[in-house]
Amino acid sequence: MSIKAVLFDLDGTLLPMDQQVFINAYLSKLAQNLAPLGYEPKKLADVILQGTTCMVKNDGKRSNEQVFWDKFEDVYGENTRKEEAKFARFYEEHFDEVQSSCGFCEKSKFVVEQIKKMGLRTVLATNPLFPAIATQKRIAWAGLSPEDFEYYTTYENSRYCKPNLEYYKEVLQKIGAEGNDCLMVGNDVAEDMIAQKLGMKVFLLTDCLINKDNQDVSEFPHGNMDELLKYVKTLLQ
């Protein structure tokens, strides 16, 4: 039993967080910054969430980015895509103010570095609901850099979302790997452990566990960062 690549989730995995606390802080800060441009805060937050739902349901015919902005245009009008630069400016100048809603795990960088030293490829398989710039910022909040991963998913380069198995198939295709070559590490039972169906090994990080269906987690290898490293070593024996 061996692997060639480790796929990491980001939010709640390498970057500790209470997902709802983060989402609330993010939407609040975004609305605060865009209100002077004429976006009513509650309506904007609702449309962002509607766009997110559309991305989660994406059938692969368009990028997640296109699906999101199509929804935005449905609500705000066909010229809304021209406003994208204003959203990009928010991520560049104000998104870091949301970092305080997240935690920090000193071992995240250490674990990624150790896994690379083992000769394994590292991929960031974060749910691609954000543009690249927002993903890069969150990678930095985790004490890492985009260069720590050979590939990371964003709404620009993805056509599916978790827990759709097509998301994982697309990642495998992009990195040129088979399911049984990979280990998927994440904190969400439904979204991350489903990769097992493609032959991937899985490891459930339990520090920020999300288990909406109250599934028995004992069926998966699970634990903290230290236990993850031990598990990876067993896969290489």
Summarize this, please?
The chain is α/β, with parallel strands linked by helices. The protein is built from 9 helices and 6 strands, in the order βαααααβαβαβαββα. Helix 8 links the parallel strand 4 and strand 5.
Describe this structure in words.
By secondary structure, the protein is α/β, with parallel strands linked by helices. It has two domains: 5-18 and 103-235, 3-Layer(aba) Sandwich (Rossmann fold); 20-99. The protein is 43% helix and 9% strand. It is built from nine helices and six strands, in the order E-H-H-H-H-H-E-H-E-H-E-H-E-E-H. It has helices at residues 19-34, 41-56, 64-76, 84-93, 107-117, 132-141, 165-175, 189-192, 225-235; strands at 5-8, 121-124, 151-152, 182-186, 201-205, 222-223. A six-stranded parallel sheet has the order 3-2-1-4-5-6. It is globular and about 60 Å long.
The count of β-strands is 6
Q: Give the DSSP E fraction (strand runs of 2 or more residues).
A: 5-15%
Rg over alpha carbons: 18 Å
Please give the CATH class of the largest domain.
Alpha Beta
Distance linking N and C termini: 8 Å
Major sheet details: 6 strands, parallel
Question: Any idea what the CATH superfamily of the largest domain is called?
Answer: HAD superfamily/HAD-like
Helix content: 40-55%
What would the average pLDDT be, to the nearest integer? 96
Please give the domain count.
Answer: 2
CATH architectural name of the largest domain = 3-Layer(aba) Sandwich
Structural class of the helices, strands and pairings? alpha/beta
Strand order of the largest sheet: 3-2-1-4-5-6
CATH topology tier name of the largest domain: Rossmann fold
Please work out how many helical segments DSSP would assign: 9
Poorly predicted segments: none
The SSE string, one letter per element, is EHHHHHEHEHEHEEH
What's the shape?
Answer: globular
